[in-house]
Amino acid sequence: MTYDSCWDFPPDEPIARHGEFSLTLVRPPFPGPGVQPPAHDPEEARRFVGDFGTIEGVVEELAPVPATDAVPLGTRADLDLVRVGCWGGVTEIKDPALAPHSDGTFPTLEQAELLERRFPDAAIVASATLDHAMTYGAWSIHHPNGARLFAAGWHGEDGWDVDGDARAVLAAFGALGFASDADLDLDADPADFDWNGLARACLKGVTSIDRRSRTMSVFRVHRSEEVVGDMEENWLET
Questions:
Q1: pLDDT bracket for residue 3 (50, 70, 90)
Q2: What would the pLDDT profile of 172-225 be if each residue is shown by its tens digit?
Q3: Taking phi first (over 0 means left), then psi (-120 to 50 degrees means alpha), and beta for anything else, what does residue 189 get?
């Protein structure tokens, strides 16, 4: 069986929807918001992507790209492309397999928990959204002192799944001031809350989020049949 035979869609099948997806791992000592981490380490990126939970193996490594470039998703073949930036103690992965599933499966939470077991002293901030006419999103924020927050739901709709307290995680990350600077309404209803703003504020508490002049490695990867099935439902089925 070839890898393409795991997919029910050909490589040139157009993507049916769009979204954003990112997971950032920050290991101690946390550099803080005013310190630029070192240049990208491609060897560390290869090690990290080979152990990431949504990936079975690396097919090839492509040319690096600027970290500020948008992730282009045009066809099914693009779903096999993963970006990884390793800047000292800061590792960031952009993987479309992190997108949440409307059946209640949340790769952001699953992968954050897996990484938490591997790196118990690290801070982890993961976020992913997928547009189905309305935006469906999931956010996982973990601090090594035990502060946790998970949120998932449809923007503007009731029925959100929220576990944890925004103020508690902001305090743990030393980011209450960043939330205030961003006019983040911590009392907003979950359906209208700025979850991406919360994720950015938390990251600012432990590291610089300025990605200008940074590069990321790009890998074409092999997926399990289970991950392929989830990605087909998320990105290709209409």
A1: low
A2: 999 999 999 999 999 999 999 999 999 999 999 999 999 999 999 999 999 999
A3: beta
Provide the whole-model pTM.
Answer: 0.96
Quickly list H helices, the chain.
42-51, 107-118, 166-172, 176-181, 195-206, 225-231
| Cα dihedral sign, 168-172-174-178 | negative
CB atoms near residue 65 (< 10 Å)? 17
- Chain centroid, CA 106 distance in Å: 11
- The counts of H helices and E strands in the chain are 6, 9
Nearest to 100 by CA among 139, 49, 149: 139
Q: How far apart are the two ends of the chain, measured CA to CA in Å?
A: 26
User: Residues 6 or more apart from 133 whose CB is under 8 A from it?
Assistant: none
Residue written as token pair 């690096």? 64
